[in-house]
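Same chain as my last thread, 658 residues:
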Amino acid sequence: MKSKIILVGLAYLSFMANVKSQDLIKQIPEDAEIIAAFNVKDIVQKANANKLNELLQKTGFFEKSGISASNDIKNLGVDLSQTAYFYTRKTDSISFTEFIFSLDNKGQFEKLLHEAGEPKAFANGYTSIGLKAGSMLVYNDRVARFISATTNTNFLDNDSIANHYGIKKVDYVARPSDDDDEAWADTTVAAVDSVAAVWDEDEKPLAVPVAPPVAIAVEPDTIVAATEAFPPVADIAIGDAVEMHDPSYYDSLYTAYEDQNRKNDSIRNGLRDKWLLNEANRLLSGNYKSLSNADREKVLKNLGLIRLYVPHVEDLYRGLMPYTTSLPYYYMGIKLDKFKTGYQDGLLDLVQEGNVLKLKGSVGLDKTLAEMTKRMYARKPNSKFSKYLTDKTLGFFNVNINSEAYLREMPAYMAKYYSGLLGPQQDVVEWGLMALEIALDEKAIAQVMPGDHLVVVNGLRKFKKDYIDYTYDDDYNATEVKKTKEETLPVFIWMFTSKDQRLIKKGLEMAVSKNVGQIHDGIYAFSTKKAMDFPMYVLLKEDLVMVSNDSLSLNDIRQNKMNAPANKDFVKLMKQNKMSAAIDLQKLPTMLKEMGVTPGKQWEETLAQLNQYGSTALTSKGVVGNRAEAEMSTRLPQTNDGAISYLLDQILAELNKK
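reply #2:
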């Protein structure tokens, strides 16, 4: 009976924790641009609470916060069992960010804020405390919300909007050289006339259309009305050369310029603070639509340590374009607002799996783009590639594209998603893409290069390199001298499938006939000009074309002498993904040492520790469902607590050195 009661109690606590987490995410507005979720419980557990405490102690966090150094993060008043959230939201005039996290002890939390200022009653049962300009912290018994705001520069740079808020633009004209005094006098008088016009005392004030604070009175920076007058500027005659050369004249002009800029900044800061206050009242009153249920599920479903979620990738991408309203683009007929990507939402997850840290990313594709992308990447790697990933392999890169589908689909893709950029030229672009589609024989091209490629780096080799030096006689006349030196460099091989090698072979033979290259035992060699770099070699073997900087490696392949054991991890990565790349960090220290690379004392210990690491890999399975997926992983040294705990150990070790 007792066990049943305990199970019911645990289930209830789990349910309540989930409800509390769900309740916090409801505070995020539906028009949030970027959302981040922090699984605080998992982060603390996987990082090891004791190590986190030690880190906070060594960084002076407890001391600076007025908390006993013997205390720990569990006594900060923050609920470490709940998910915390961060999001951004922007309008045409201002950008907001908010960080939301749960509290379990308001009194303990307030102790952290004793240096920030005196807590004051705010609205809707919240308390506020003053922080740096453009930000505020509000909290109640169960949640804390840090809100900040930044005005969008482009919005207030617009002349009509700037005038509406009383922001006046004035240019400071610096005096040039004495040779240009007369011309400068003309331009300076014109500038002063312009300044006088801007500071016309008869101009009537413009009201700033911002609603007054609802909850509490604040004292933002003084907003300057357009009627505020500046010290009068003396009338200057063009021929009055004495006054033009009076240093006090330049000083007064510069002072007026600086005064106006300060007043403009005061207006901007005042607007920012009022808009921030209005946003805080709007959020705390719940007077907005919150994130949709579908978006909430995407934020929370299978949450790892941290998740970054972008509800509308296309809108974010378009917002990052700096020239959306640029006049040159407008007159060229380019309409960036018509730009489409076919992307929907985006996810990026930080996940720990034992001693492996992973970044998993995916982006949703619309139906047309998803189907198109699947066709373009509908190719498996050539199984013959596997034998070239051996225990000597330092790293590799493999990609598999269906060249035939790619050439067939790309014109349609460009026409659908990019032609809208060009406005009146759209028809011409679509016609050109159709002509390209007709001109390309994708089936024939796909026979020459179907689209699977492998680049592999297999160890190091000493190369003899020819280079040019110069000797000089007594009259400093230079004589070119050819010399040779030895260098240790990585050996690479780039290979790709080619079912029809006639075109490639014809090109190689043509190069030999023109004395650009040579052929020996079936391997083509091409020297570079003036022997400044290493020669390159090409081998055609079965249905593979191989390009390398090492003739010995190609000769071993030609004679089937590649008998090294396979690197099973690399082979698995290559076979299971449409795209894969990896580097064996364990081999890196030895390779750099053999190459004579010295990292410096501060990096020696870090480099030596790489012997305990595994591989770092970047992979993609292509499109799964309607999502394009990719993943980056790093295998850290094996420890009892896992990857995050190991990273903390490294940070603490560095702090202990100081």
